[in-house]
């Protein structure tokens, strides 16, 4: 059965989607953009800052379900510009130190709100 996950520790959806969903086993987060939980968009910040905020949002959602970043099975990173890969990767590693999840990283043509990075994950206890 699908259940909607909602938390104040990540920004509200900027469109017609939920912050995350679960079937009671797997947790699927929406793509998290660099927006603070109180709605400040960090689109003008560098990719390090944008990546950290996106992952802070992921972390906030997971914590709502009693999960941690160690429970992430798969991550997908969307970059507006693949030339930002190394900078994104360095910040990303701060959040996934040991046994990182599987990951795909791709360049998207453009991202919502003009941000440089968007990150979604699938996690399970
Ligand atoms: C920001 C998003 N995750 C969206 O628009 O789907």
Automatic annotation (TrEMBL):
Domain of life: Archaea
Pfam families membership: Ribonuc_L-PSP
Keywords: Hydrolase
GO molecular function, one term: hydrolase activity
Assigned protein family: Belongs to the RutC family.
Name of the protein: Rid family detoxifying hydrolase
Organism of origin: Halorubellus litoreus
